[in-house]
Amino acid sequence: MLTKLQSIKKLIGHTPLVKLNHLAVSLYSKLEFHNFSGSIKDRAAYNILRAGIENGEINRETTIIESSSGNMAISLAMICKELGLKFIPVIDPNINKMNEAILKLFTKHVYKVQQEDKTGGYLLTRLETVKNLCLENKNAFWTNQYDNPNNYLAYYNTLGLEIAEEFDSLHYVFIAVSSGGTITGISMRLKEKFPNVKIIAVDIEGSVIFGNPPMKRHFSGIGSSKRPSILSNALIDEVIVISHEDAIEGSNKLIKEHGLFTGASSGAVYAAIEVFFKKNPHNLNEKALFICADRGISYLDNIYNSDWINNTLISSSQTIS
């Protein structure tokens, strides 16, 4: 499996860095949808599996199990398929239809929970299901993205390092938060080279990560129903919480203004960039960076669908306002 891992490694990382036209700041983006399975999660999935194989926790008979709303599950499914490993994803009704279809192509068993947890989301129910599946499968390995340090170390050693090498100066970095691995690893690495860089975390309404009250969340890729333990290592200067509506508007602006067809988390981050620079004095020559975590194609059924917006988002605005 280690030989196969090396071939997969060549398909992950060193993603394009592009400069965008922006009135407020010198703005750049890392296009993480150029990774193996199409998202930033390939970095964490690969690193967690690699570590498990190298330390003997994973062998050819091991069943890999993870709770994921989409991208992490797809990354694990595709890498496990290459390695010949069995993978069981635990998903919920908020998963994008296309992501669910992809998982069913790459895995034999997909567990979809239906019961909301006490926060109005599904994460806690998914995690309980994962624990039960681990008990049922004698040789099981839970990748545990919310608590596994190999999640954030993946970004410290790859994406964070790439960014540090690509810039001679950097003033602001905007990162969406979900499992916490990306912002933790990147912030640790970048603060080493750029001590004064401001790390701005971007969250969504209804997420409890930064102590806000739980409410129903309507799309995946950003936010969480629990605070990930690995986030305790993150070096965050400011948090901006974005509404579902502003995340959708941000996604559409990325298309109209920059030709970037991205997922909901990128739209939320772009909306946060506008909020930040309207409130904070800045120099037009300062450099800012944000991450495009995945493509927008998986979101055609929700954030880019006017019927979904009207029937699901606007009709339940009392819930998320």
From TrEMBL:
InterPro entries named among the record's database cross-references: Cys_Synth/Cystath_Beta-Synth (IPR050214), P-phosphate_BS (IPR001216), SbnA (IPR023927), Ser/Thr_deHydtase_PyrdxlP-BS (IPR000634), TrpB-like_PALP (IPR001926), TrpB-like_PALP_sf (IPR036052)
SUPFAM superfamilies in UniProt: Tryptophan synthase beta subunit-like PLP-dependent enzymes (SSF53686)
Keyword Nucleotide-binding: no
EC number: 2.5.1.140
Protein name: N-(2-amino-2-carboxyethyl)-L-glutamate synthase
Span of domain Tryptophan synthase beta chain-like PALP: 9-275
Gene3D superfamilies given in the database record: 3.40.50.1100
UniProt keyword Transferase, yes or no: yes
Metabolic or biological pathway, per its Swiss-Prot or TrEMBL entry: Siderophore biosynthesis
GO molecular function: pyridoxal phosphate binding; transferase activity, transferring alkyl or aryl (other than methyl) groups
Family to which the UniProt record says this protein belongs: Belongs to the cysteine synthase/cystathionine beta-synthase family. SbnA subfamily.
Organism: Pedobacter terrae
Pfam hit, one: PALP
GO biological process, one term: cysteine biosynthetic process from serine
Keyword vocabulary terms for this entry: Pyridoxal phosphate, Transferase
Known partners and oligomeric status: Homodimer.
Cofactor(s) the protein requires to work: pyridoxal 5'-phosphate
